[in-house]
# Entry
Amino acid sequence: MIKKIKNKILLSKGGRIFKYVDKNKSYFKTFGEVYVNFLDSKKKVDWIFHKKCQCLILVVHGKIKFITKKKDNKINHLTLNSEKNHLIVIPPKTWFRFYSVSSKSIFLNLIDKMHNPRESLRKKIN
# Structure
């Protein structure tokens, strides 16, 4: 099941601080790698499927639409934007894809294992 989690927004003299994750959260398993993804407007990414990895995704700039699909082929749409500080948890064995709704967007993706090309699958968008 895909989870959308509201993270804390802390205020400081210099501005806002968005908390991403800490090791005590129930959805945090372990640290593998973190990727920073830069997206151009409306460029759609092919379907991605991780056999064993969980993804923790946070949009840090812009607005991104995520589409997810489980074994039952039920499609779920989630939109995240950098103003809200929501995190989504994409469990293993979930197909997902995404595209930027803004002219440019950036998101962080923390996976719980080191990248292994044999661990993931890709499928062209229909």
In short: The chain has a mean pLDDT of 91. The domain at 3-123 is CATH 2.60.120.10 (Jelly Rolls). The two ends are 23 Å apart (CA to CA). The chain has one domain: 3-123.
